[in-house]
Amino acid sequence: MFKTRRSLRTLANLLPSGALGLSVGLAAADAAAGTSVPERQEGSVAQRLQSLRLDVSVALEQYRKDGEPFVAVDSEERLAWWGNGGWRNGGWRNWGNGWHNW
Amino acid sequence: MTATPEIGMVVVQPTAFCNIACTYCYLPDRSNKHVIAQTTVTRLFEQIFASGWASSEITVIWHAGEPLVVPVSFYREAFATIERMRPASVHVRHSFQTNGTLIDADWCALFKDWNVGVGVSLDGPRELHDLHRKSRSGKGTFDKTIAGIRCLREHDVPFHVISVLSHTSLDQPEELLDFYLSEGIDQICFNVEESEGDHVSSLFHGPELRRRYAAFLRTFWHRARESGRVRFLREIDLALPRMFRPEGVPTRNIQTEPLAMLNVDSHGNVSSFSPELLGLKNAAYGDYLLGNINFQTLQEIRDVCLASPLHRDIAAGVEACSRSCDYFSVCGGGAPVNKLFENGSLTSTVTSYCTLTQMVPTDLILEAYDRLEHSPAAAVSAANALSLSVTGGSAAPEPSRMP
């Protein structure tokens, strides 16, 4: 899947830039598509989210195999911001549904 | 078997008093000038650190009423006390959510000395802000809030703003962005006016709200990123890591985990789950209180929590969400306070709050990601934007704050 999908190739480029880079890249992609109605996607939202996470897992595995982990191309600050501890610490733990009033 | 608590966020209400009177405020006790005692702060953190339940990073949020009506000297003493007790393995970050009207050089010195996270409540330019954020005499507070923000900037204190969106502002994403940029505001969060406690929002339950908010957020996101001058847009930037995580890594919802958020009022009363519950009345749930930190240990408070109808019903609500909601893997079970006030039951599932804070950002991001697949131009745009953001200087250091 990783080698056959255009979005995966782009995702692999975007992930090392952290949330900010992903936010910038996806906003640009969305804006470039203008007001055209996107093709209707197959599957439920839950299935699309699962597929997306599989894409991330595949990208991570590819980085590992290639010996080009994110840490080689990004700053400590940006990695840490990905998930309170970053990828290398097995982060993500605290990326929950935080409280919005602060 | 219930998991060991992991306390990552402590919301302390130094006083319920607020010096202003916003029309949408949900706090029932905002004229009460009682201030938390230093001994209560000391006892609270003694208990947290002794419990072994402290996360390696704890964010302490001084919040609700207006934390800056309590003197700077109070916080200097409290912060020093906490620092003396803090185990080396635990990092504590203090944070204020303020209306900004009282910020001066002394406050900025405190913020810098202790690397305090500062959030200012600002609803946009004067005509939007003054619609709802009024003084106790009914005048607009814009001038004082913006003076506080300019003071933060003069002293190089990083800050974010939280803007409550109303009927009017939902139609003005570009005007809002222009305003933020003109004031040097580059970390932005939005709340949509909601129904909580005493406040019933006329906006929140409208049938068109989801579509309007999605249109607002999409335009704001595009324009903000295109400007290269916004470092942080909470609604999108915090949704991204929840979505783009490796398969199998669980999400967390600290509003539904017992004691993951510890919420303490000025008298030492302790609650957990959604902080807005603290101070509200409800006979069936014992006013949402789990104990008092001055008289009980955290272990005792936890035992009360685990045996409480409050925990039972929140857990049932999360379970119901897990069975029925496509977005569960993003949010982990919703916000209890919104289930209660929108649906009348903690065991319920979807709310307008869910729709706006979880579903709309998720939908926007999924749609953008799908466009990468189906549009070569979109993929090229993403790559170009990324290279510009990295080489062109807009990828400023990220805000050093917890989500």
From TrEMBL, chain A:
Q: Which UniProt keywords apply?
A: Signal
What is the residue range of the signal peptide feature?
1-28
Stated name of the protein:
RSAM-associated Gly-rich repeat protein
- Organism field: Reyranella aquatilis
TrEMBL record, chain B:
Query: Residue limits of the Radical SAM core domain?
Result: 2-237
Is Lipid metabolism included in the keywords of this UniProt record? no
Q: Which Pfam families match?
A: Radical_SAM
Q: What is the lineage of its organism?
A: Bacteria, Pseudomonadati, Pseudomonadota, Alphaproteobacteria, Hyphomicrobiales
Q: Which organism is it from?
A: Reyranella aquatilis
SUPFAM superfamilies found in the cross-reference section: Radical SAM enzymes (SSF102114)
Record keywords: Iron, Iron-sulfur, Metal-binding, S-adenosyl-L-methionine
Keyword Transmembrane helix attached? no
Q: Which CDD domains match?
A: Radical_SAM
Report the cofactors: [4Fe-4S] cluster
Protein name per the record: GRRM system radical SAM/SPASM domain protein
Which Gene3D superfamilies does this entry report, sorted A to Z? Answer: Aldolase class I (3.20.20.70)
